[in-house]
Amino acid sequence: MRKLLYIVTIFLLQGCRPSIHSIADFNRFLNDPGNGCVKTKSIAGINISVKYLPASYAVLKSQESNVTGSVIASNKDVVTFLMTINIAKEQLDKEKHLSVMYSGLDNMSEYAERQLSMNFSMERQLHLIIGNKQIDAVSCIAENLYELSSGKTFVVTFATPGLKNDLGSEMCIFEYNDPFFSMGRMKFIFDGSTLEKIEELKLG
Question: Taking the model in full, what pTM does it have?
Fold first, then answer.
């Protein structure tokens, strides 16, 4: 049965591939849970989503700047994800503050401590597991939305020299050990073969 599902998935990705002409097209594709690039969990009123960002995504964003070659080189041995922490929809009406950054806090001192930890040491809580190898995050950059959004988004990068070529034959586990919202250790499991096929999407 699993083999049949694998064959069907490959067929869909190869034979029914969407046409990607813009970042908007790419975002629609990546945000569709059916394409296997985004995983979501909700615990105790907090929602966390993790989205895989293929190297071709960065290439498309950079084409207008004529830096495609350097982007391909820089993404050869890295795996990148977008992680968003947000207040769950059913919890929004109960929260006094709209931003997840205030959730569960009693004062501004606690808020300042959370901001400091999230902006400068978040990578300590993030790991990627490919096969039997655990990789620590080398970079976790918080997007500064000036609290125009209720969520907090991070671009998380893992250095994977020699491992990215093995991605297609392994499960890929994004692990986040949450110290802020009492959610504990969370694992987001991606099918490596699906992610590998995403890298082959044709642009243009």
Answer: 0.81
Report the C-alpha gap between 172 and 201 in whole angstroms.
19
The answer to whether residues 50 and 81 touch, using CB atoms and an 8 Å cutoff, is: yes
Segment 58-96, tens digit of pLDDT = 777 666 455 444 444 456 688 999 999 998 877 766 655
Locus of tokens 């495609």: 68
Cα angle for residues 68, 73, 77 (degrees, 5° grid): 135
In which region does residue 31 sit, left (phi positive, over 0), alpha (psi from -120 to 50) or beta (all else)? Answer: alpha
If one compares 170 and 80, the residue with the highest pLDDT of the two is 80
Give the number of other CB atoms < 10 A from CB of residue 109: 9
Chain centre distance of CA 109: 29
CA distance 68 to 203: 13
1: tokens are 């049965």
Which stretches does DSSP call E strand in 35-182?
Answer: 38-43, 46-53, 78-87, 126-130, 133-142, 152-159, 171-178
